[in-house]
Design a protein that fits this description.
This protein is of the alpha/beta class. About 30% of the residues lie in helices and about 25% in strands. The strands form 6 sheets. Strands 22-23-1-24 form a 4-stranded mixed beta sheet, covered by helices on one side. Strands 2-15-17-16 form a 4-stranded mixed beta sheet, with helices on one face. A hairpin with a 2-residue loop joins strand 4 and strand 5. Helix 8 packs parallel to helix 10. The longest helix is centred in the middle third of the chain and has 14 residues. The radius of gyration is 22 Å and the shape is globular. The protein binds uridine-diphosphate-N-acetylglucosamine. The site of uridine-diphosphate-N-acetylglucosamine has 22 residues, from helix 1, helix 5 and helix 6.
Length: about 425
């Protein structure tokens, strides 16, 4: 099986450009269902999750032409199905993003209950409760969610229990043609929500307030029209390279994203001892001082992103003292910590708190990527570890990072994809 092998101790310096945001591109692709015709999406990352979403759209009847590596022409004029099978939804939870667009276009949808990244329960009850308020009826059988709209979609006020990204997106898309006004209260405010609202408005929708906690959607009649749209830069890919530059010392310039989308991360990193220069399209990071422990708690945007928690814990694990990392978004997102402990980190988990005691260094080890961001953070730890670190289960990393190894190699890291033996067959022992 394939793994990523890193030799620790090399300097990394230079410039890296991030791709379009995975978490935006997937939803933009789903939204093209609502605009029959040829939609062109640019700055789309060439990653496994995008390929899965491509398969989802093709199963529904869309055709996709890859104009160049990052430009997709998605023709949704012939979409005539509204069912997304378990084989695809199980590969990627974000496949459920087609629920809203299918309801908007056909008034019905069948979507398998999600599986996806192994980071907690990841329920979709808020999507369902919100859509029910708009008049959607749900039946759940044999692992599938059957959604229908016997009386059409009718605008309503939906107050979310938690500012869920996925629920906000599905509600925003489903309500585009609802009768009257829909208000999403306690809406998620992530830059990817704003990108999706911009796309829908360019297509002819009437959405106001995206990026604030209250989003208002005025229902419009008739289908939306196809457009060309550029995906927002990936703040999490960017944050990962910023964390790496800060860990090793840099200077590393990370371009292709808006530094305001990493506001609190950059502020916390400055408190931890990183030097950060903000540029119009990125940042330059370096570090000349020891790392300082700093408490972190993850929260919906503009709070500290859960998707930057593992990379940040990797920095804190080498800080000169102790601090607490609190995970408020996903319940099961500390699996990375136990792998990092195999490399010498000292971390105690107490419920959704991790108490991180800084150690002087990591020692290279064989470790397993527990999920997408945890996998990237283990490669990051390998950059400064003593000797070699081999990270297996790298399909998690390939889901969300394009040319991860190549980009690190270009910065000067000693990193390769290698073949390693698979798990031992215990029946033969
Ligand atoms: C998206 C991102 C993911 C990021 C997360 C939070 C994509 C493809 N993924 O995931 O990378 O980490 O936002 O920024 O965009 N919840 C419920 N019921 C629901 C919906 C959510 O209990 O109906 C819970 C989840 O289990 C989780 C929390 O709410 O604990 C946040 O989930 P949500 O914001 O919806 O994240 P996703 O959209 O799944």
């Amino acid at each position: 099986m394939e793994a990523i092998r890193v030799e620790g101790g090399r300097a990394i310096t230079g410039e890296v450009t991030v791709e379009g945001a995975k978490n935006s591109a997937l939803k933009l692709m789903a939204a093209t269902i609502m605009a029959p015709g040829v939609n062109t999406l640019t700055n789309v990352p060439n990653i496994a999750d995008v390929h899965v979403m491509g398969k989802v759209l093709k199963r529904l009847g869309a055709s996709i032409a890859v104009e160049d590596e990052h430009t997709l022409r998605i023709d949704t004029s012939a979409v005539d199905k509204w069912e997304t099978p378990y084989q695809l939804v199980a590969q990627m939870r974000a496949s459920t993003a087609v629920l809203g667009p299918l309801l908007a276009r056909f008034g019905k949808a069948v979507v398998a209950m999600p599986g996806g990244c192994n980071i907690g329960a990841r329920k979709i009850d808020m999507h369902i409760l919100g859509l029910e308020a708009l008049g959607v009826k749900f039946d759940i059988d044999h692992g599938n969610i059957h959604a229908s709209t016997p009386n059409g979609l009718i605008g309503a006020t939906v107050t979310l229990d938690f500012a869920s990204v996925g629920a906000t997106e599905n509600l925003m898309m489903a309500s585009v043609h609802a009768k009257g006004t829909t208000t999403i209260d306690n809406a998620a405010r992530e830059p990817e929500i704003v990108d999706l609202a911009n796309l829908l408005n360019e297509m002819g929708a009437n959405i106001k307030g995206a990026g604030s906690p209250v989003i208002e959607i005025e229902g419009t009649e008739g289908p939306l029209h196809p457009v060309t749209h550029r995906t927002v830069g990936d703040r999490i890919e960017a944050g990962t390279f910023v964390a790496m530059g800060g860990l090793v010392g840099g200077p590393v310039t990370v371009r292709g994203f808006d530094p305001r989308h990493l506001g609190l991360v950059l502020k916390k990193y400055e408190l931890m001892g990183l030097d950060i220069e903000r540029l119009p399209d990125g940042v330059t990071v370096s570090r000349a001082r020891p790392l300082t422990p700093t408490d972190i708690q993850t929260l919906p945007f503009p709070g500290f992103p859960t998707d930057m928690q593992a990379q940040t814990m990797c920095l804190l694990a080498l800080a000169g003292g102790s601090c607490v990392v609190t995970e408020n978004v996903f319940e099961n997102r500390f699996m990375f910590a136990s792998e990092l402990q195999r490399m010498g980190a000292s971390i105690t988990i107490e419920g959704h708190h991790a108490i991180v005691h800084g150690v002087p260094g990591f020692s290279g080890a064989e470790v397993k990527a527990p999920d997408l961001r945890g996998g990237a953070a283990l490669v990051m730890a390998g950059l400064v570890a003593d000797g070699y670190t081999t990270v297996s289960d790298i399909h998690h990393i390939d889901r969300g990072y394009e040319r991860f190894v190549e980009k690190l190699d270009a910065l000067g890291a000693a990193v390769d994809r290698v073949e390693i033996p698979g798990p031992v067959d215990v029946t033969e022992l």
